[in-house]
Amino acid sequence: MTTGAPPGATTGAPYRSGLRAGRDGLAQLLRAEWTKFRSVRGWVLGMAVATLVIVLLGLLSASGSHTSCGGPSDACPAVPVGPGGEAVTDHFYFVHQPLDGDGSVTVRVNSMTGEKRLPDAQPGVRRVASGVVPWAKAGVMVKDGVRQGSAYAAVMITGEHGVRMQDNFTHDVAGRPGGVSKESPRWLRLTRSGDTLTGYESADGRQWTKVGTAVLAGLPATVRIGLFAASPGAMTVTQGDLGGAVVAVRFSETTAAFDQVSLQGKATGGMWAHDDVGVVYEADGQPHHPGRFTRSGDTFTVTGVGDIGPSTEGMNIESTLSGMLAGLIVVIVVAVLFITAEYRRGLIRTSLLASPRRGRMLAAKAVIVGAVTFVAGLAATGAVVPIGTRILRSNGNQVLPVSTLTEVRVVAGTAALLAVVAVFALALGALFRNSAAAVTAAIAVVVVPHVLATASVLPVGVSQWLLRLTPAAGFAIQQSIPEYAHVLGYYSPQGGYYPLAPWAGLAVLCGYAALALGLAVVQLRRRDA
Length: 529
Prior knowledge:
529 residues, 26% strand, Jelly Rolls, elongated, 2 domains, 14-stranded antiparallel β-sheet, single chain
């Protein structure tokens, strides 16, 4: 026999909602939050405005960007493209012979000297000093002809980076450090076996150390083999008046003396040919800063300018995303209102009654606002990047080519960036429960650091730390051209280079969004609606 509890007494039985069982399931919550979002015209219109802003401002910027290189054509000359599809710089002096099939080249480098231009102390008075720049190069090479952008492998001594083996522009392997002199020469050897090129170095020509191996798929049977020299330029960096830096690259050349030259293989042993690969000609038909070659007995002296590596000169595909920040601010406003509107109107109580598990309700809101933003961002970037790139090129601009995977990463990654910022802004809205405070906070920690870091108003070191430690690190996902350690360049945020790799930068932003969302869930459980 059971007895009921006395009137007014309480029992330990939990409260049971009168709502239908299963209403608290994630699928039902997602459907409910999606219904809320699409039912409010202002939110839907806001996402449409963000999409249009990104597209229209990007296309407007591309349409207004015109470049002319002078001469009979307004268009700039085409940028050479390497075997991997990347834009390259392929300018050096090459002394070579044909090689049919397998073979090798061995040399002793006795000296490496050069000249470099210094900043003018007086306007119009040219200053030149002796010396080599850090990435001056001289050594031995196997190359698929003398066409710019053709496949190659080379072993070289550099100005300040020791012996290196490089191939197909983007690959670089370090050998032993140190320079070269008559008292301390460096021996270099490059051998070919099919598509495999192997580089060696030696201090005495007897004991050899392997530097690296390169596989050049599809290398033809007959290639060119020989000696080369290149010097990428003398770079100076000065502090700008308002922060940032002013970068200038001036003329430099390097001269290397080779002896003990030995070629092995078919078709070698004849006359030496020499080409100033990639040299630029003046209007009068004369080469601009030409290289040169002389031979005295068994000593070859080769002088070269230029560089061999990926090109960083030109516009990047992410330059079409100039409307990104304006669109991002609109997304932040919509995402914040998606949660604060319920607090302002008192509707949050109804939402929590429908979903007693408060964290699940907030998670459902995050999924919906993130998904909607990603779709809107994907539509915007998927349109503006390819169309804007075509407009830039039609206006005579040099836009650095990238692989299809890189372009997809920039397009989809930018959409993901927008989506994660939307989730972050939603979490701030749940924390502050005030639209103005949440929007201000989101802009202050996402947009403002990016603007300060890329607008040349702060020292470069400070800019880089901002893009490492703040949510603005997520913008690294837009970088299409990586930083190359073996290529002369000033890699700074002002030039579109981020201190973190693309996915690492996005991961930092995701960490902030997850932290803010977690704090919002904790607060939502502890505080009254």
